[in-house]
Amino acid sequence: MIKVGVIGVGHLGSIHLKLLKESIYYDLIGCFDTNKNVSINNSEFLFFDNINDLISSIDAAFICINTPNHYKIAKKCIENSKHVFIEKPITDTVDQAIDLINLSNKNKIKGQVGHVERFNSAFTCLTDIIINPKFIECHRLAEFNPRGNDVSVILDLMIHDIDIVLSLVKSKPKTINANGVCVINNTPDICNARVEFENGCVANFTASRISLKNLRKTRFFQSNAYISVDFLEKKTEIVQIENVKNIDDKYAMVIENSAFKEELFIEAITNLINLDKDWVKTGIGNSLYIRPFIFADQDSINANEAEEYKFIIICAPAKSYYSGDVKVKIEKSFSRASKGGVGYAKAAGNYAAQFYPTLIARKEGFQQVIWTDSSNHEYIEEAGTMNLFFRIGDKLLTPPTSDSILDGITRKSLIEIAKKEGINIEVRPIKVSEIIQATNNGDLKEIFGCGTAVVVLPIIGFGYEKEYYELPKIENSWSIFFKKKLNNIQYNISDDPFGWRFEV
Description:
Blueprint: E1 2-7, H1 11-22, E2 26-32, H2 51-56, E3 60-63, H3 70-79, E4 83-86, H4 94-107, E5 111-113, H5 121-124, E6 135-143, H6 153-168, E7 173-181, E8 190-197, E9 202-211, E10 215-222, E11 225-230, E12 235-241, E13 253-255, H7 262-276, E14 287-296, E15 309-318, E16 327-330, H8 348-363, E17 368-372, E18 380-383, E19 387-392, E20 395-398, H9 409-420, E21 424-427, H10 432-441, E22 444-451, E23 455-459, E24 461-464, E25 467-470, H11 478-490
Helix pairs in contact: 3-4
């Protein structure tokens, strides 16, 4: 058994004494407190008159004295090779805390701080549920109590919430904005803080020890759920934001993340296609172009997000965007989208940003622009109307999707076909220099684009830095192979092993 002693036998120290006495894992040697009067209420325990005598008699110390003395006593214990449990906060200052950590590592002892909320049953049940939270809101209020007022409300109450948040958000703080006021004590009694992390998560903290009621609640918001934790009542609420039919969590409340049911949407599309299908000519290359979209239609002129929107589906007979040979220009000056933006979405701004650079490219004899990363124009992204594929040697390469690359359905389809047909495909960043080198070496066999309106489109050449590179004409073209495979599935000529077709 581990021999332990308690240093400081006030409110918390007395609790530790009773729990340690009942534990089968510890041998409670005794306790020490500078206030001899506390021994009256704890007469069943052995009191040491000298702290050094207690430290020399134990393996580990439970330090429950007032915070200003944590550092001095903990240091004494660690220097004597005694493991320590320290009630929160660990010390008055960061420098003192770092010193204790370094000292414990040097002396190879274990230390723990009493952040007990980590072990609250309302929180521990969420270990596998809270994943990558986007926004966190913490409220911790307490009725006034003279105990613990030797430190600010941040180290007294808020420290629990800070510990919880830091344990969940796997990212460093980027900015911190905080305000505190002293009401009764010389240190802040009420504090509010907003912390922004490098991964985009935002956490708001509110703590007060000047309240008419006790409150300990934290709310987590993530892409698939809203989670509320009541640390005081030990209750947890989960509202899952997913498609109802995919939910298998019997404990979760469920809301649909849409005002428009999926079944109703499919029914509307089906009826619309049946109404318009006679407008479409039969034969490969002819199709009905279906475009659902949303736009703001409220009466206002401002630079804020809209509160009213209109959902519309438009249909039109369509052929391929391009006819004849297609040449592209690799852009190294202009950008269509950037990291952190909405380049992955079919948004109006994404189309508008490409108009002028594409106009310049057309005047130079090219039909489209290949966009590169906005930072250094070093990596290939996508073309204005297409995702891109490069055949280098016996490999097929395509850039990964990102904030600036549309995750196209046709792109996904080609990747699935390539995998099924045993084609060596790599989804990875592709440097412009790699394409130039492969062209000069004769390793670049094909470039082709893909998209809803273009299906699969071969590219015969590209321009870069005032140089034009013509691609060789090859037999057994992969672009032709993919286009035939996809068209055969689309036009019901061959089997559909992927389950992509939908009968109307």
